[in-house]
């Protein structure tokens, strides 16, 4: 139950990600390797044409895409320095 609540809070805070991502890429604290890895994750998500659950199945296909995007965003937060996490409350 605690894990579900944590993920729900993560989804609610999604609006904070845009300024967080901008500062993540501008920060000197984040290594170029991590920045490159994030770009590769996002690019592979955008370029990968196949889904686990096809989008034509309605809501289930969209939930699949949202879950993958949230997973990528969680990985970005894990790679970020503590200062950025604390600043944006992530």
From TrEMBL:
Coiled-coil annotated residue ranges, if any: none
Alphabetical list of Pfam families matching this protein: DUF1232
UniProt key word Isomerase: no
Domain DUF1232: 37-71
Protein's UniProt keywords contain Membrane: yes
Cellular localization per UniProt: Endomembrane system
Keyword line: Membrane, Transmembrane, Transmembrane helix
GO cellular component: endomembrane system
Topological type in the membrane: Multi-pass membrane protein
Protein name per UniProt: DUF1232 domain-containing protein
Organism for this UniProt entry: Parageobacillus thermoglucosidasius
């Amino acid at each position: 139950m605690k894990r579900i609540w944590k993920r729900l809070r993560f989804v609610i805070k999604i609006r904070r990600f845009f300024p967080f991502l901008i500062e993540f890429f501008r920060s000197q604290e984040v290594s170029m390797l991590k920045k490159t890895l994030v770009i590769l994750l996002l690019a592979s998500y955008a370029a990968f044409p196949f889904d686990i659950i096809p989008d034509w199945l309605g809501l289930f296909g969209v939930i699949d895409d949202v879950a993958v995007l949230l997973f990528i965003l969680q990985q970005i937060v894990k790679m970020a320095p503590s200062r950025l996490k604390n600043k944006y409350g992530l």
